[in-house]
Every structure is written in C-alpha cells, then in structure tokens.
Amino acid sequence: MVFKRLRAWLRLDDYAAAKDKATDDVIARYSRGNTEVQNGHYLELDKLNDLSSQGDKAMSRLERLVQKRTG
Q1: Residue 10's domain spans which residues?
Q2: Are residues 32 and 4 in the same domain?
Q3: Which of 12, 14, 43, 45 is the most exposed place for a label (fewest CB within 10 A)?
Q4: One domain for residues 36 and 47
Q5: Are residues 34 and 62 in the same domain?
Q6: Are 16 and 2 part of one and the same domain?
Q7: Which has the closest alpha carbon to 31: 18, 20, 47, 42?
Q8: CA–CA separation, 9 vs 65, rounded Å?
Q9: CA separation for the pair 24, 16 (Å, rounded)
Q10: Are residues 3 and 28 located together in one domain of the fold?
Q11: How far apart are the first and last CA of the chain?
Q12: What is the domain count for the chain?
C-alpha cells in the first residue's frame, strides 16, 4: 500500500486529481444559478471578445448621446 501511494505521489497523480477537483469546484461555483452554463451553453473566447467589443461600441454611442442631451 505504501508503494502505491509513493508511486502516485511521484507521478503527481494526487496533484492532477486535486487540480481537476479545484477546476470542477470553480466551474460549479460560477455556474450556480446560471441555467445556460448548466445546460452546456457558453461562449467561445472569440465570440466573447466580439460581444465585449459590441458592448464597448454601444457604451460609446450611449455616452455620446448623453453628452449631447446634457451638454
């Protein structure tokens, strides 16, 4: 039994298992209550960047509109 634990320790099996568990915990925490993520719907990085860019443009337009109305 000691040799199995030593072999697992040397092969970093414990580290990999702990890392996988931590990853699962983070995903579970951030997706709690988010039914889209829980159902497997998520954005790829390039689509997320596109959405962020669109949001930045919309905010710029909104800021210009507010300045026109108040300025």
Answers
A1: 1-40
A2: yes
A3: 45
A4: no
A5: no
A6: yes
A7: 42
A8: 61
A9: 12
A10: yes
A11: 77
A12: 2
pLDDT in tens, the chain (71 residues): 787 877 777 778 788 888 889 988 888 887 777 767 667 777 788 988 898 999 999 999 999 988 888 86
Distance CA 22, CA 14 (A): 12
In whole angstroms, how far apart are CA 17 and each of 12, 21, 23, 47?
Answer: 9, 6, 10, 31
HEC string of the chain?
CHHHHHHHHHCCHHHHHHHHHHHHHHHHHHHCCCHHHHCCCCCCHHHHHHHHHHHHHHHHHHHHHHHHHHC
Q: What tokens appear for 28 in the block?
A: 């579970």
Q: Find tokens 């709690």 and name the residue.
A: 32
